[in-house]
Amino acid sequence: MLSSKMNIALYALVAMLTIAPGAARAANCGGEPSVSSASSFQTWRRWCSCMGGTSASNLNDAQRQGGCRLPSGSGSSSSSTPSGGSIGTIIGTEIGKEINKMLFGDPEADARRRTEERVRAEEQRRAAEELNRRQEEQKQRLLGGMMGVDGSPPLGLMDIGSGPELGLMTDSASAIAPTAKSVPPAGKKSDSYTKGFEHASQCISQNSGSACAGAAADRQQACVADYRGGYDSGSIQRKLVLQEANLAGQGAAARGELANGASDPRALGPCRTDWIMAYNNGYGVKAPSLPVTKPAGAVVDNRDPEVVRIINEMNALAKRLGWSAEEQVRLDTALNGFKADGTKGVTDAEIRSAWQDVLARGQDGDLARKAAQGDGPGLVGAGKQSFEDCAIFALANASGLPYSVVAARATKLIGEGGWRDAAERANPQKAIEQRGLIGGEVAMLAESIGQVEMVPSTAFAKTLKQGRPVMVNVVPQDGNVTGGHQVVLSKAFQHGGETWYEVVDSNQGPQQRLYLSSKELGVVLQENGVAFRPETGTTTKFLR
Q1: For residues 409 and 448, is the Cβ–Cβ distance under 8 A?
Q2: Angle at 199 between CA 195 and CA 200, to 5 degrees
Q3: pTM for this prediction
Q4: Cα gap 327→332, rounded to integer Å
């Protein structure tokens, strides 16, 4: 309270000092004299000069000018200048005004301030509404194009390179994308269409049965068609997100940064691995060396930190499981041996064209006969896949073990390892069905039931001649270079002056075979192969 009174006193003093010069002059000069003659006019002029004012030299001119012109702040003329007796009133009034403002505020200033704040708030609100409107329009245009509602053309995936380390071994690419529930399709769509869109955008394998299980018999066919349509639309969204990951990798490489897609905030959710691999594709897999000073002989590890983490976790699990030193060395060599392979610079259109030729060729009799006489173990298929478990089928085919045995080994490794997140470790079977295996898991799984070795495409025919099947990761038939599909090379043979391969593909069933030329294999190949050798006494012999 004392402080407030002192403030008021100080303000009052300032006000008095402001008015004091005029008051002092009024006290010294007296009141304004009356003018009745020439002598009294001169007296009046002296008074005007004493007050600090100016006037004309004669009475008539002084009257026309309005009397004594006093200094600024004292009034415009003597007619508005108060007498000495009224100075106290002015001082008191001004001091009172200042004290009132200090105690109760300035209503007029407060009103102006509130008005200005309301105007600014309204402008900000309108700007935010306009931004939200534009974003909503952009989102609806994008969704409309993806869902095929507004007739806009589909947004295709850019032509990008392939060959990430520890590449994903699944039939289709996956990415981080919002669920169909959070971003409902534009226009009126059926529940099965929405479910298909959700599955594709969330990296869940295509399974119309779960979406159409309760549909009436006469609605089953239409339900399945709707589901597949939604799945196709969701796949477009997934590809767009992977394209974004690819561009992020390209940008990091152009800026000379280390490849670090794993720490990108967009690399989250159920499709984290695919996002990182698409990032690595854009980056070019291997990061450039940084200009740092290092001791002689020191090695700088420029690999993606996420890849290094996965390798370290797999090696740690092998040690915990009591694998022999020889097995651990083979595993570590294989995990660090994944390299890009195949023809460079191929486009998705070229990949689709190559697959179309292979599938149209079918079970060519002449090729089948030559394959039977070629080099390789020859395999009996384990069955036809229905989930994202092509890598399980591939290893079951390569090892001659039942699918259930290989799947059990795979779930054990995923459940006990530390490279996947807690939810996937808790339900490894679901993780395999929905996302498949990554390349490192294929190598570790192969070593757990036999011996693994990474071989380049130039050694495929030689490896088959040694009686070892080769598992290879290829681009799926849709040409999506960020996806992957695991098949097995079972035979190598000559046809038309070129080396050809017999391929066991779990998409084709246990008895069907595909035949690819070396050129076609190079077009669809993503990385070097995983050669498998059975260990005596631990692996079932191949059936001939």
Answers
A1: yes
A2: 120
A3: 0.49
A4: 9
Element housing 325 (H / E) = helix 325-335
- Kind and range of the H or E run holding 493: strand 485-495
In angstroms, the CA 85 to CA 93 distance is 14
Q: What residues does 491 pair with on adjacent strands?
A: 502
Q: CA 477, CA 499: separation in Å to the nearest integer?
A: 22
Say how many residues make up the chain.
544
34 three-class SS: coil
| C-alpha Rg value of the chain to the nearest Å | 43
Buried b (16+ CB within 10 A) or exposed e, 1-22: eeeeeeeeeeebeebeeebeeb
Burial of 242 (0-12, 13-18, 19+ CB in 10 A): buried
Ramachandran area for residue 497 (φ above 0: left; ψ -120 to 50: alpha; else beta) = left
CB-side neighbour CA atoms (13 Å) of 70: 20
User: What is the full per-residue pLDDT of the chain (544 aa) written as tens digits?
Assistant: 445 555 555 555 555 555 555 555 666 777 778 777 777 778 878 888 888 788 777 777 777 777 787 765 444 455 444 444 445 555 566 666 666 666 666 777 777 788 888 888 888 888 777 777 766 665 555 444 444 434 333 333 333 333 334 443 443 333 334 444 444 444 567 888 888 788 777 766 666 666 787 778 778 888 888 888 888 887 787 777 878 888 888 888 888 787 777 777 777 766 676 777 778 777 774 433 333 333 344 444 566 788 888 999 999 999 999 999 899 999 999 999 888 898 888 888 899 999 999 998 877 789 989 989 999 887 766 666 666 778 888 888 888 888 888 889 999 999 999 899 888 899 988 888 877 888 889 999 999 989 999 999 999 999 999 999 999 999 888 888 777 888 999 999 999 999 999 998 888 877 788 999 999 999 999 999 999 988 765 544 443 3
CA–CA separation, 200 vs 316, rounded Å? 34
Burial of 282 (0-12, 13-18, 19+ CB in 10 A): buried
The overall longest dimension of the chain from CA atoms, in Å, is 145
- Cβ atoms 231, 196 nearer than 8 A: yes
